[in-house]
Amino acid sequence: MQLLFFGKFWVLGCLKPLLYLCPMLYTTLRNLLFQFPPEEVHYFSMNLLKKACAFGPSRAIIEKQFCVKDTSLQKTVFGLNFTNPVGLGAGFDKNAAYLNELSCLGFGFVEIGTVTPLAQNGNDKPRLFRLPADKALINRMGFNNEGVVAIKQKLANWNNQKNNTQLIVGGNIGKNKLTPNELAWKDYEICFEGLFEEVDYFVVNVSSPNTPGLRELQEKESLKKILMQLQNINQGKAKPKPLLLKIAPDLTQEQLDDIVALSFETKLDGLVATNTTISRAHLQTPTDTINAIGAGGLSGKPVTNRATEVVQYLSTNTNGQIPIIASGGIFNGFDAKEKINAGASLIQVWTGFVYEGPSIVKNICKTLAKTGI
Fold first, then answer.
1. Could you give the domains of the chain?
2. Which helix (H) or strand (E) element contains residue 263?
C-alpha cells in the first residue's frame, strides 16, 4: 500500500508541471490530485511549482501563461497600488514560503499567515477535508505556522530578492492557542511589531473557528482593546501600515453593527469579509460524511451567498467609506463581480484556487477587464 501511495505521487510529480503549462489539463487531472490527502498534495504541488519557477525559462513560460497585464485592472486601495484586485487569502501560504511562485500565477496580492508569536503545530491531522459535491473544504488547521521570527526572516529574504515584482503582501496575525484571551492583545502586538517592516498591510484575525475561544475576541470590548493597542503603535510609526479586521460570516446583525461602529472608532483601514463558517446547512455531501469529519471551518461555494450578504451590509452601513476585501465562494469572474457589485474593493480566493486550478486569477481578471471593475 505504501509503495502504491508513493508510486502515485511519482506519477503526479511527472504530470504536475504540465498543469501550469496546459491549464485545460487541470480539470482532467484534478481527480488524480483528489485521491491524495489534501494537506500533502498542497505542499507537494507548491514545491514542484517552486522548482519550476527557479528555472528562468520555465518561470517565463508560467508568467506568460497566467499573468494578465492590463492597466484597467489596477486599483489603489488604502493607499496601496494593486496591479489587479485578485488576491490569495490567508492560510494558503502560512509561512511566506511561496510568494515568488504565487506572483508567477498572477496574483495581485497574497495574505500570508495566520502568524502567531510562537511556532505551533496546529491541530492533529487529518485537519483538511474536501467536499467535492459542494465545491467546498472543511479545515481545522489551528494556526499551524513557524512563528513570527522565522516568518519575518523569510519575508525579509523575499523583499531583498523580489526584483521587479509588484506583489502586495499582507500579514494576517493571530494569537497562540495557549495564550488566554485576556492576554491576546500582547500576541497581536508581538506579531504586528515583528512583521511591520516586511508586509504592506495587516489583518487582525479573530474569526477563525479553529482556535478555542478565538471568536470570543470579536465581541466589541475585547476587539476594541486589541485594535486600539495596535493603532496606538501604528500611529507612532513614521509611516503607518493599513490595518484591517477579518470577520466571520456567522455574526448576527447586532454584532455586524458593532463591527461597523468599531471600525470608525478605531480608524480601521479596511475589513475582510468573510472567514470560514461553522454552519453545515444545505450541503450536498451526505450527513454521515459531514459528521465523520467533525469540527472545522467550511469554505467554498456554500459560503457564497452569506459572504456576499455580509459584504453588502458592511458596505451599506459604512457608506462605502471603509474598503472591503471580499472572500468566500469566489470561483470565477462572475463570482468576483458579484462581490464587487456588493461593495468590495478587492477579492480573495482560496478554495476556488483548489478547485479551479492555476488559471483562476487569469480567468477572473479577464472577466473583470471585460465587464469593468
1. 1-66 (no CATH), 70-371 (3.20.20.70)
2. helix 253-265
- Residue corresponding to grid cell 456588493: 342
Report which residue type is found at 195: L
Kindly provide the b/e burial profile for residues 328-343, where b requires at least 16 CB atoms within 10 angstroms of the residue's own CB.
bbbbebebbbbbbebb
Name residue 88's beta-bridge partners.
110, 349
Here the cell at position 196 is 511591520
Over the stretch 72-99, which tens digit does the pLDDT of each residue have?
999 999 999 999 999 999 999 999 999 9
Q: What are phi and psi of 257, to 5 degrees?
A: -65, -40
| Catalytically annotated residues | 208
213-266 residue pLDDT tens: 888 989 889 999 999 999 999 999 999 999 999 999 999 999 999 999 999 999
On whether the CB atoms of residues 317 and 257 are closer than 8 A, the answer is: yes
91 vs 194: CA distance, rounded Å: 19
Q: Rounded distance, CA 272 to CA 301, Å?
A: 17
H or E segment and range at residue 270: strand 270-273
Of the candidates 11, 4, 27, 120, the one whose C-alpha atom is nearest the C-alpha of residue 360 is 27
Residues whose CB is less than 8 angstroms from the CB of residue 74 and which lie 6 or more positions away in sequence, other chains included: 81, 82, 83, 84
Peptide bond into 114 cis (omega under 30): yes
CA atoms lying within 13 Å on the CB side of residue 47: 9
Indicate the helix (H) or strand (E) that contains 157. helix 148-161
Q: Is the pLDDT of residue 1 over 60?
A: no
